[in-house]
Structures are given as structure tokens and as C-alpha cells.
Amino acid sequence: MIVGVPKEVKDNEYRVAMTPAGARQLVERGHTVLVQDQAGEGSRFPNGQYEAVGATIVPTAADAWAAEMVVKVKEPVASEYGFLRPDLLLFTYLHLAAEEALTRRMVESGVTGIAYETVEAPDGSLPLLTPMSEVAGRMAVQVGAHYLERPHFGRGMLLGGVAGVPGANVVIIGGGVVGTNAAHIALGMDANVVILDTNLDRLRFLEHVLHGRLTTVASNAYNIAEAVADADLVIGGVLIKGARAPMLVTREMIATMRDGSVIADVAVDQGGCVETIYATTHSNPTYIVDGVVYYGVANMPGAVPRTSTLALSNATLPYVMRLANNGAEAAMAKDPGLAKGLNTYEGNLTYEAVAEAFDMPFTEYEA
């Protein structure tokens, strides 16, 4: 198969979908790998490293997109819509439930779109979403601590405080991969951490594995409101597989927060779980409403591309190999979890939660 790796074009997106090590494995199996010029530079993988393992450097995005399968990191943006076509297999993060224009364009184009974030392991976990959720969860605390500083219009607080001065109150909505990793870093920085989740077994688990100033709270509207009112930093980490994130933190709740408090909503790429959040970029990451600092960067891991690229490619490469070796249909027939990643196929929308988000027809794919 001919596999294309275009350069990412979103604002300050420095990740690349394939490392030279991954390209080498594909080439050794007889596949052709087309890497757009300087696609790996942002992650410190220069052209020469790809050429050394047998990949071909192509000059333009159109050359890379001309492949039979395109492997990316982020969903296509408007400038890339013209590359979508019926005989293309696109394997990337799509987050369609928050992108109606992209969803409709993919259906119209007939492209076969498999989304990293909806591929499932046998136990129902999301193996291709997990590595970036780990990175984003940890980063959320870093950026939250940064924007709590007074030069960035925060409250002027050190996250962990010092002797005789209490640390910041960090409230984490959701105890999944994002929330666990955020709590791990926040507790390591000596913050006071509250995690809210609807799954009591998950909260019991977190109490066993996390140590420090940790409080676990059953998630409901009343408890969220109480926690948010006392928070210096709120981190949104709620996920519903393939669907738009539920709006759990309301405008009324945010009105009770102190001036200079910070909100970092990791769920923003799925629409966000905070009512007043909207997606921002690394170039312009924050905005202020009623004294509260909002951080809504939708591709947070792009700021640490070396770590993120390696973590992502470790997870995606086995699936890329299966798709290249067998083709999409055969690979999905062998792996029902991979088939759950299929979002668009032959002009149909094949992921029900996305169809529900936009009141579009849903067609179930049968492997």
C-alpha cells in the first residue's frame, strides 16, 4: 500500500503521525511511505531520518495526500477538504461530534474515515486516545499553574503554596485518563485536589492509587457547583466515546468563581464540558470572561511534539500496519475494535453518536 504522511497544518501543531521507526517497519513489509517535506521537523525528525529508512520525501501536501492511505494527527481543516475522495483511507483523530462542517464534507466526499479516538480495545478502552489524554491531562496542570500567575491575569498563586501558605484548590471534572494524569501532577505539586466522577468504583480506585491532598466526590450538579465555587483551577476531563462532551459546568457556576481563577477544558476538542468555553490556539491560548481565565487549546499535546509523537505512534503503528497489510475492510473484519473506529464509509455516516449530534442519517457498518 502507498501510505502518505502530510505535514500538520493546524496552528502551532508540531506533531507528525509517523516516526522514522514506523516508516521503516512499513517499508520492510513492502509498503511505500510518502512523507511531506519537513513533516517531522517539528518533532525533531528531519527528512534525512525518513530517507535513511527507505521513505520518500515528497514536496507538497497534495503529493502526500495522493496516497492510498493517509495517516495524520489532527482532523482535516478546510484547506485540506479538497484532498478527501472516495478511494482514500484516512486514519487520524477526527472528533467529528464537534465538527459539523468536516462531518458533512467527509460524508459528501465518500472518504473512508477511521478515527483514532473511537477505536476500541477488547476491554472497551480507547487505546489510541489514551496516550494523548495522558499528555493533555498532565499539561492541563502545567498550563493551569502558569496562568494562575499574576502576569497572565491569574490569582497570583503558586500551585503548591509554601510553608504556612496553602496551595491552590484544583478541581478535576472526570476521573478517567485525563483526570487521573492531571491529579497525579497536581498532587505532585502539592495542590489540594478534588476529583468528581459518577463512577464510585473509579473514585475508590483513585483513592487507593493516588496519595496526597486528594478528595474524591460523587459527580452531580450540586457537588460540581460547590467544588467550582471554591476552585482556583478547574480542569475539564469528561469523555463520552465519539460524542459531544456533556456540558457540566454552567455559566452560573462560573459566576461564583474568584477573579483570576483558571479553567482548562481538555474536552474542548469534543465541544467542551464548560458552558462558556470555546476552542483557542497555541498562538492565542486564553481569554477572560468575568475575571476568569479560560484556556481552550484544542491540540494541547502539539506543544510537546517530541513526547506526543512518540507516545502516539507507539499506539497507532500496530493499527497502521494492519490496515496497510490487509486493507481497511479486511483489517476491520479481523478486529471489531478497529471497526468501531470507522466514522464515515462510502458516503455514509457510520458512527451513531456523531449522527445524533447533527441529526444526520446513521448507517451501521457490517464488517
Summarize the structure.
The protein has 367 residues and is of the alpha/beta class.
How is this fold's topology laid out?
Layout: E1 2-5, H1 20-28, E2 32-36, H2 47-52, E3 56-58, H3 61-65, E4 69-71, E5 89-92, H4 100-109, E6 112-115, H5 130-147, E7 169-173, H6 177-188, E8 192-197, H7 200-209, E9 214-218, H8 221-229, E10 233-236, H9 251-254, E11 262-265, E12 286-289, E13 292-295, H10 305-326, H11 328-334, H12 336-339, E14 342-345, E15 348-349, H13 352-358
Parallel strand pairs: 1-2, 1-4, 2-3, 4-5, 5-6, 7-8, 7-10, 8-9, 10-11, 11-13
Antiparallel strand pairs: 6-14, 12-13, 14-15
Helix pairs in contact: 5-6, 10-11
Structure description:
- There is one protein chain.
- The chain is built from 13 helices and 15 strands.
- With 367 residues, the protein is of the alpha/beta class.
- Helix 2 links the parallel strand 2 (32-36) and strand 3.
- It starts with a strand and ends in a 9-residue tail after the last helix.
Q: What is the number of strand segments?
A: 15
Q: Which word captures the global form?
A: globular
Strand order in the largest sheet? 3-2-1-4-5-6-14-15
Q: What is the terminal-to-terminal distance?
A: 21 Å
Work out the helix count: 13
Task: Report the C-alpha radius of gyration, rounded.
Answer: 21 Å
User: Largest sheet, described in full?
Assistant: 8 strands, mixed
Mean pLDDT across the residues is 96
What class would the helix/strand composition place it in?
A: alpha/beta
- How helix-rich are the residues, as a percent range? 25-40%
Low-confidence stretches: none
Order of helices and strands: EHEHEHEEHEHEHEHEHEHEEEHHHEEH
Query: Which strand-content bin applies to the residues?
Result: 15-25%
